[in-house]
Amino acid sequence: MTPISLEAMAASVPDGALLALPPDNSLPSVALAKALIRRGARNLRLLGVPVSGFATDILIGAGCVASVQTSAVSLGEAGFAPRFTAALKAGKITIQDATCPAIHTMLQASEKGVPFMPLRGLIGSDILANRPDWRVVESPFGTGEKIVLLPALNPDVAAFHGVMADSHGNIYVGRRRECATLAHASKRALVTVERVIEANFLEDERMAPGTINATYISAFAIAARGARPAALLDEYGFDADYVATYARAAKTDAGFADWCAEHVFESQAVAAE
Amino acid sequence: MTPISLEAMAASVPDGALLALPPDNSLPSVALAKALIRRGARNLRLLGVPVSGFATDILIGAGCVASVQTSAVSLGEAGFAPRFTAALKAGKITIQDATCPAIHTMLQASEKGVPFMPLRGLIGSDILANRPDWRVVESPFGTGEKIVLLPALNPDVAAFHGVMADSHGNIYVGRRRECATLAHASKRALVTVERVIEANFLEDERMAPGTINATYISAFAIAARGARPAALLDEYGFDADYVATYARAAKTDAGFADWCAEHVFESQAVAAE
Amino acid sequence: MNYRPEELLAVTLAKLIRAVPTAHIAVGAASPIPAAACWLVVKQGDPVRLSLLHKRSGNPFTEGTRELFDLTGQGRIDLFFLGGGEIDGQANLNLIGTGGWPGREVRFPGSFGSAFMYFMAGRTILFREEHSPRVLVKQVANISAPGISEAGVFRRGHAQALVTGRCVFAFHPDRGRFSLASVHPGETVQSIRDMTGFDFDVDGDVPETTPPTDAELALLRSTICDEMLETYPDFCARVFNRKQAA
Amino acid sequence: MNYRPEELLAVTLAKLIRAVPTAHIAVGAASPIPAAACWLVVKQGDPVRLSLLHKRSGNPFTEGTRELFDLTGQGRIDLFFLGGGEIDGQANLNLIGTGGWPGREVRFPGSFGSAFMYFMAGRTILFREEHSPRVLVKQVANISAPGISEAGVFRRGHAQALVTGRCVFAFHPDRGRFSLASVHPGETVQSIRDMTGFDFDVDGDVPETTPPTDAELALLRSTICDEMLETYPDFCARVFNRKQAA
Questions:
Q1: Which listed CATH number (3.40.1080.10, 3.30.200.20, 3.30.70.330, 3.30.565.10) goes with A6-98+155-272?
Q2: Strands across the sheet containing D177-183
Q3: Which of chain B's residues have a Cβ under 8 Å away from the Cβ of D77?
Q4: Per-residue pLDDT tens for C186-244?
């Protein structure tokens, strides 16, 4: 398995795809989000795994997004996600609210190849009241318990940023195992990485536990600092200044457009740095 | 968290406990099984996760076991498990048959804190016909699909052998993540390890993915070569000769008694080597 | 007053934590005051395990982000903290937004794990510094997570208390109502009534919230600040006047 | 005959694998001949991914032992191999034992994952060297995994074929019966009937199973033996006369 280019990867995500993205604490591929903006992606249906952050906000700002299913959209310390908030208010996107473990559970159902999975909680929440696709049943084990069943969720594309790929396309994500679940549950997994290592992580007992088997990986691309401004394990930290600057700029349409011109379009080299 | 002695660990497993044991390819604590024989444990209800091997057979041979729930009992290349086969024929133990993913699923239900979880397959199998605790339902999502629901399984004690513990009681098991699921799903997890390392594996990105958080670990004991004759990651290999010798000896009650006297009772030092 | 309001709140939360046997607490990222309270309990010598969810180094979870929820589902989390854009008198939480669904007036970030954690943690301490009729409402516009549950719904725990910048309310799941437990210095029962959109019970005399001791303040400003510096640099700079080394 | 029976079987299995597009095969530990067949397909240049379940070094799974079943549940395993202590004419498998439940006469080790894998793999090749009325029975004493399923039961695949030491049967899930596809050298339709406990169809002339070519034998005895040596040392010693280096 050999890397493809970031732009080729972005081109392979069709308009309208159900695209699953981890949030800022969980290896987002901000590099791919920017490449999707450059390619002019449209009508993406984003899934926050289990919440949404920076990458989601810039995709919304650039007009790439039709809907978001998530448990929250936030820039963390930098506050509310400005383009999400504006687009929702303007009616440009729709949101389907969930709660974190419900999204994990729906992905785990796909991971296990079952049509649904139960989850406690939720009953009495308006989240449930607004999810006609979720069901409340009484336990068939005779306990009288009412419990929610959630349908399997099978994203068209999962995108995240791993630390590195090996010669076989195995991807190292360390303890961020939610990326593994996501890859297992999705039709295609597109992964950006810092680098490719001549090795087989599966033959290395110390690397294997943090590795996602290449069998789940559709393609990978090299994108140095591809999670930035998010952190990448012990490789680099969260760039709070970058996000704060973005949050200020993106308060207005014009401010977002300027930010986007500079940070997404001006130079791919700069953007990928 | 500091280690306890192997014999203290064995003493903490009450007679009649539902004791979950991984098989020979998955970090069994043979050291603890031998210590349970030495302490004269009785009426243990064993759970194979998801099948059973050497440790189960010696516990049965020593009269420690009342029942086994498992997907198979086997010594692998060395053939049928002789003490299991003899005890079942003699009516000394009962067996509750399952299939591998059903046991994983029942443990995952406990791991998630849900009362049941669905699994495909099984319908038309006599395994299902002999499991009154399992339910067939029609999917409440209107697809007409019939599917099995399995109840959560919450072992009293999980026992396995990790490579090492750190100063905080975190346990390294590498890619054998089934031990993590088992620890999560059980009331208590008792773990033997080769050694204790002055460190915090959770602070080390390379160690963390193969680590089970100490929050799930009730106690650990040092037992060098504690998985033997099973293999332990890249630490030591499977001892096929040891198992073959056992399989020959254990064909008869007398042969097992001799084997047990030599390999379990004669010297704990020898047994643990 | 020789302490900051945040210090009073941390000490108050610590007392609520210690009022109930507590083995394991999970604390989210946006919660520096609850985190300080938890560290205070630990540093005062209670054998409490803390799982700090967004700690970058030493993140406690090795199964990915689902592990917190699984852990809580298993009944291993005794205490969690939640807040809300709106909180009502039945302890319902709104993290969705005001106006019609899904927050047509003001949209909040979203519910995160609240619709699960509020049911499955051993108990929850509600914490919101802003105490105003805007936040503490008669009825939330949208329920992210309900304060009480009907029969037949598995629920391990409820709100233990609601701590705000003005007072401490205790919650009574049996009657689905708050009672006023203490008022912070400068507040009265009437001033709390004036600033609270929901009705609550007042059972007898309401004491003043106990201020921090010198020992508590010393702990907060030294070793607890040390522990919190990596995760909450802004908070430590603002409250403890401590900057992280470059 | 310049080849061993195991080599004929490996080559025969390889042809069945290549007869259907196959991206990913999982192979269990007790299956050296199916493993040899899979390696043959790979070394002949087909881009097939092999997951060898009990390979000690380079074990393909990093989610623990549930990953094989999850992977298969997801529809990512195109082919799996199963055997059985008993196999009947409806392709039902018995890995439990003979006599009443749970194997009162002869107890076999147990069903392993068969009650799931047989439904969820893209297809299954049944393999059992022993071809006798004891193994190939009219009706299995206990069903570990059924050959066909009723309507409303999710089933991704069925048996493609049953390969024994005497012949190849094709399975027809629509009619729930085997037909004789080829007989190994030395066997006839009648000799197969004599040794088979179940009834099967014979559609026209039954060819002889094609023997291995020199190229296939050369591959088996060199690079394929190299690949298999770590996992199947006894098999390699016996069939290829190769000992593992100490």
A1: 3.40.1080.10
A2: D49-52, D24-27, D79-82, D123-128, D159-164, D167-172, D177-183
A3: none
A4: 999 999 999 999 999 999 999 999 999 999 999 999 999 998 888 888 889 999 988 76
Report D:185-214 residues touching A (Cβ under 8 A): none
Tokens of B247: 């399989």
Q: Which residue has the tokens 């804190």?
A: B113
Higher-confidence residue of D11 and A267: namely D11
- D62: contact with B, CB 8 A cutoff: yes
Alpha-carbon span A179 to A176, nearest angstrom: 6
Which residues of chain B lie closer than 8 angstroms to C62, CB-CB?
180, 202, 208-213
To the question of pTM greater than 0.90 for the whole model, the response is: yes
A144 touches chain C (CB under 8 A): yes
8 Å CB contact of C66 and A108:
yes
Could you tell me the CA-to-CA distances from D152 to A9, A45, B37, B134, C47 in Å, in that order? 39, 31, 48, 18, 53
**Amino acid (one-letter) located at D124:** T
- CB–CB of C74 and B114 under 8 A? no
- CB < 8 Å to B113, chain A: 120
Enumerate the domain spans of chain B. 6-98+155-272, 116-151
The CA distance from B233 to the nearest CA of chain A, in Å, is 7
> Angle at which helices B54-61 and B30-38 pack, to 10 degrees?
10
Q: Hey, what are B76's tokens?
A: 């692998």
CB contact, 8 Å: B100 with chain A?
Answer: no
Which residue type, as a one-letter code, is found at position C105?
E
Domain borders along chain C are 1-77+214-239
